[in-house]
């Protein structure tokens, strides 16, 4: 099968090549990929930034998000059958959605929301699960609370704003000047134009910050949180608690403890909590998200689509950090495995 793969870590090392068709384990579902979406994580993995905690062998097909049609199921699969339209964030260690087919554990899959296209479904899993695991699972965000979501026009930001509003929160976000009206239309109550405003000087007494930017923004976020508030980062630094949950070696636990010791110490002095969230695959949470999508509470946001042959261009575009929402790659046309048009 064709796949976009890398043979080594390094910048711009990807290529379209041939890989063997994936094996299908007892609990796995073989999916014919119709669309995938690009995340900054894909670029970081290709450059080797996660090789200590996510060791992969080469050649490696990239890609985490997938939407497609079930071709075959493993002997112990109970939730899916051939012909089902599904979507997922492929689990860590088993990525490779930039390909014609991929095998995915059934616990990571969910039936695609009926009211959106394959491209829209492919745009959802990683960013929607990240928003869910930060706001619902970790922050336990409640109606009336105040949340600051950084980078509101990005992939995670566009979904997190919508989810936070659905939960009844007061939402502040940040973006560039040209995106201010667009982000307000997503539901943000307050929009910080970072080109002209410093959020730490404008916002105060917030319950939760979803941090997705750099070290400067991380430390500034402490200033806007009320005592008992939560600073939750998806861009690091990772914590010893995260390392223990992942089953990492004592060496990695020590390294991550050192990396995050400064921000954890400052958070304690401020009387707030600091948590690092590294999104994990979950079909059960995707089913919850599907319900919100079908109810119209959450809508996928797509910046642009690329052909499979232009996957390298799609990665480069995402690396620029200017996309509004998600970037999608079209892999297959809407034909079922039997050659019949999907209806």
UniProtKB/TrEMBL annotation:
Pfam family membership, one: ADH_zinc_N_2
Alphabetical list of InterPro entries matching this protein: ADH-like_N, ER, GroES-like_sf, NAD(P)-bd_dom_sf, YIM1/Zinc_Alcohol_DH_Fams
CDD domains in the cross-refs: MDR_like_2
Domain Enoyl reductase (ER): 14-329
Regions annotated as coiled coil: none
Transmembrane segments: none
Name the UniProt record assigns to this protein: L-threonine 3-dehydrogenase
